[in-house]
Every structure is written in C-alpha cells, then in structure tokens.
Design goal:
Blueprint lengths: L2 H12 L30 H11 L4 E2 L2 H4 L16 E4 L3 H14 L3 E4 L16 E4 L6 E5 L4 E4 L5 H10 L2 E2 L12 H7 L6 H4 L6 E7 L5 E5 L11 H5 L8 E8 L1 E2 L3 E9 L2 H13 L6 E6 H11 L9 E9 L1 H17 L4 E4 L3 H12 L1 H6 L4 E4 L2 E2 L5 H14 L3 E7 L4 E8 L4 H20 L18 H5 L1 H14 L13
Parallel strand pairs: 2-4, 3-4
Antiparallel strand pairs: 1-2, 5-6, 6-10, 7-11, 8-9, 8-10, 12-14, 12-15, 13-14, 13-18, 16-19, 17-19, 18-19
Helix pairs in contact: 2-4, 9-11, 14-15
Length: 500
C-alpha cells in the first residue's frame, strides 16, 4: 500500500465522516502525485472560537493567504493547506489547545520554523498547525551546571550565541541553524557538521517539558550528569517527530568552548582517495570536529555561487576541521594534512586564521543553497552507511544517476558516513519525478544492504515512511506503534507521519 492510500485509510478509520475534521493531504512527492478531492468538514466555528479564547484572536490564522506559508516545510513537492494556524505563547496555551483537540478529535501538527526535510510538519487539510515560534525565550543559563533552559521557539543559532557569550559551547549545528528552532531540532534529533566528534542533538538534551495529547504536562530529566532512575522517558520524545507530545521546554547540556580551531580544505582527483584519507585519519585516532565532502557536481555549483576559489578540475573535496587545545590542534592539523598529501591530494589549503577558516567552510555550508539555484526543484535526501562503505555508496549513487538520467549532487558528512544525494529536478515533469522516485528506492535499498540507515539526521516524516518497515523490522515497528498508541490513543498528533 502506498503512503497516499495508507494515510487515507487511517484517517477514514480514525475520524468517521460525520465528524471528521481532516482528511486530505496533497502529496506530490517523487512522481507519485495524487490529490484527494473529497469534500470534508473544515474546522468547526465553535473550535475556532475556543482557540481564539485560549490564545487570543491575533494568534489564530484562518484566511487562505495567511495559511499558505504554513502549508509546506523544507521538503520539496509536499504541500497542503491546514484548517488554521495557532501560535502558542505559553505551556498553558499548548495544554489547552491539545485538550480541545482531543475532545474534538482534531488533528494537530506541531511546527517550528518549518525547515524540516522529510515532510514532518506538512499539515493535513482541516488540521490545527500548532506553531511554537512565539515560545522563544532562553529561560536560564546555568554556568555552575553547564546547562541552558530554553523554550522550543529559540533558534539553534541563538542558543549557540548565548553559550558562546558565556564562554561555553553548544556543538550541534544543523545546516539550517540560523532559522531552525531547538524544539524542531529535538523532535527530529538533528545532526550537523560537527556530529563526528560531538554527536547529535540527543547527546545534549538533559531534560524536557512535554505536553501530552490530553493536555497533561510532563517533565522528564534534570541537571544531574548521572541519572538511571527508571525508563529514559526523555529519549522517547527526542526524534519522535511530534507524534508523542509537544515539547515546550528543553534543558540542554553545554561544554567548555574549545580554545583553538584549524580549518583545511583538500581536493582530490578521485573520491576513493578522499575516502581513504578519511579512513586513515580515523585510524590515526584523530577525531576531527568536522570531516565533510563535496562531489564534482556540488563543487561546481558552490564555486559558481560562493566564489571561494575551488579548483574545478577535482572530483572530490574534503573540509577538515580540528579543535581543542592549541598544541593538539596544531599537531592534528599537520597530521591530517600529511595524510591527505600521502593519498594524492591535489591541493591542501590551510586557513591562516578564523576568518579564512570561515571562508573555507563556506564551501560546505553553502552546498545546499548552491545546488538549489540550478533547478526548479531540489530534493535533498540523506542516507548513512558505515564509514568503510561510503566510497562504495557514493559510486552507487553516481551509477543510479546515470541509470535514470538524473542530475545528482552529493555532499555530506564523510567522517560519520552520512551522505546527502541531492536531486536537481523539476516537480512539474512527472516522468522525471517518477525516475527520481525509482532512484530513491535503489539508493535506500543499497544503504540498508550495506548495513546503513535510511536517514542519519532528517527523520522519517512523510517522505521516508514507506522505507521504514524494511529498515526497522516487524518487531521494532510493532513496539513503536504500541508506544505511539499508548501515549496518543486518539491519534491526534501528526497523524500519518513516520508510519500509519
């Protein structure tokens, strides 16, 4: 059963036609375009009145022109207008909204800045989009315990800057960190360029305030470094993609700011040489904070976009950064440069200072923006394989691109095996989008075959839920469904996402 049919089925089962508040979701993803045209009830006027009573009239949007910006997220070719958008300003607002949604069986899709790349915050027709961007305060920075308490609408960059101002460091750095919110980062368990050394969002969450579907407010976790009392309930909500509860506060772990950093860019005439360089760096027991790669297509797009002086004759580029004690940084940087040259690097550029390092890092950080300029539709995907299989996986993606006559730029986190094949296409070309869909299937099947995963940091959402059962297996799927049913028995939170 396709994602489209299974979503229609679950909605029909869960909300009988006479009191169904949502049903339709326009899905035009990867060639399987289909629009449901059923006549369905929109949000009842009494429900809208109650929402206005809870949050105030200015915090409820209903006009079509106001709803358009909330009808999609960062995922290409997925869009649906919701019934309304509601901005919560307090935890009490969230609690009352969910209590109302449960009583009226109205689906709720929680949204931050809408930068997600798996369709996780794409609304359903007639649903409530619960937007948390006005919950935007940093409530506490505790230097004694190295923690920061924030509301979900605070951006990742604001958290990073607040930590830096206190001489501390918040490592997770998703590519959208200037606009993505910490609530969304936790819901998706976001990664970033520094994941190899420092891990992902989960590694920095110490506590959460979560509102459950019935409106009850739950706190899980604390400032203790060690706590093994009971189940790790906190971890259930990290990466749950808004299907188990709504996050209203996040307690984050901070670490001391590294004293020094060194940035280098190495270019190669073969991707295998870049991959071998990475393998030898790890084998030498060096764990860089950043170890990123770009393929030839991406290099050309980045140079055309950012003009950072990249050699256009190379097939692969490595961005390498090490941080820590100045003496260790100098030693590791010299060792990485030596390894790159021994593996046939065409050129190794070493930044002389932080400003030059930032310019070199632009080659990687601007990759998606650069690729997005090339075609009307840019579909950024992610798959992860063991590091030892990364070169093989990159060659497989190149072969798939040739097989289906598609243009794909690939970049990603070579140090942790996470690559981002990015399809440069046009969603209006249905025949080409069908080829994109077939290419995706082969890429994810190969990632699983090589012992990898279908997503390293973007999540499942709508875009990948058809691949989840094969990856997770029957027992794990059953456990996840039972957990979801236990916490959200009426199925109001983000229905149709992750799995049906």
């Amino acid at each position: 059963m396709s994602a489209f049919n299974s979503l229609e089925l679950i909605l029909a089962q869960r909300w009988p036609k006479q009191n169904r508040n949502c049903c339709d979701l326009i899905l035009t993803r990867s060639g399987d375009a289909r629009t449901f045209q059923k006549d369905t009830m929109q949000l009842a006027q009494s429900t809208l009145a109650d929402l206005r009573r809870i949050v105030g009239g200015k915090n409820v949007l209903t006009s079509p022109e106001d709803l358009i910006p909330y009808s999609f997220d960062g995922t290409a070719a997925l869009q649906q207008t919701p019934g309304c958008v509601v901005f919560a300003e307090t935890t009490s607002h969230v609690s009352e909204i969910l209590r109302l949604a449960t009583a009226t069986r109205t689906p709720v899709v929680t949204r931050g800045s809408g930068t997600g790349l798996s369709g996780g915050s794409v609304p359903l027709r007639g649903c409530i989009v619960l937007c948390t961007v006005k919950l935007d305060k940093i409530l506490e920075l505790d230097r004694a315990n190295l923690t920061l308490l924030a509301e979900p609408g605070v951006t990742t960059l604001q958290i990073s800057d607040a930590a830096a101002a206190a001489g501390l460091f918040y490592p997770p750095d998703p590519g959208s960190m200037k606009v993505s919110t910490i609530g969304g980062n936790v819901a998706e368990n976001s990664g970033g360029l520094r994941g190899l050394k420092y891990g992902v969002t989960r590694n920095y969450v110490m506590g959460l305030e979560v509102v459950l579907p019935d409106g009850e407010v739950l706190w899980t976790g604390n400032k203790c470094v060690k706590d093994v009392a009971g189940y790790s309930v906190r971890d259930l909500f990290i990466g749950s993609e808004g299907t188990l509860g709504v996050i209203t506060k996040v307690l984050l772990r901070l670490i001391p700011k590294p004293a020094a950093k060194k940035t280098m860019v190495a270019t190669f005439d073969q991707m295998d040489k870049a991959a071998q360089t990475v393998s030898q760096i790890i084998a030498a027991q060096i764990i860089p904070c950043t170890l990123e790669f770009l393929d030839r297509t991406t290099i050309h797009c980045v140079e055309d976009f950012a003009r950072v002086g990249l050699p256009l004759s190379c097939e692969a580029l490595l961005l390498m950064e090490t941080d820590g004690h100045p003496a260790v940084v100098a030693e590791e940087a010299a060792h990485m440069e030596k390894i790159a040259r021994e593996n046939g690097a065409i050129e190794v550029r070493v930044a002389g200072d932080d400003a030059e390092g930032a310019r070199l890092a632009t080659a990687r950080r601007s990759a998606f923006s650069a690729l997005a300029r090339v075609a009307p539709t840019t579909i950024l995907e992610d798959a992860t394989v063991p590091r030892s299989e990364l070169a093989r996986m990159i060659r497989f993606v190149e072969a798939v691109a040739r097989k289906y006559k598609l243009r794909i730029g690939t970049f990603g986190h070579m140090g942790d095996g996470n690559l981002h094949p990015t399809f440069l296409t046009d969603e209006r070309n249905k025949e080409e989008m069908h080829r994109v869909e077939e290419a995706f299937k082969e890429i994810f099947d190969e990632a699983i075959r090589l012992g990898g995963t279908i997503t390293g940091e973007h999540g499942i959402g709508l875009a990948k839920k058809s691949f989840l059962p094969r990856f997770a297996g029957e027992a794990q799927m059953r456990v996840m469904r039972e957990l979801r049913r236990a916490l959200d028995p009426n199925g109001i939170l983000n229905p149709g996402k992750m799995f049906d």
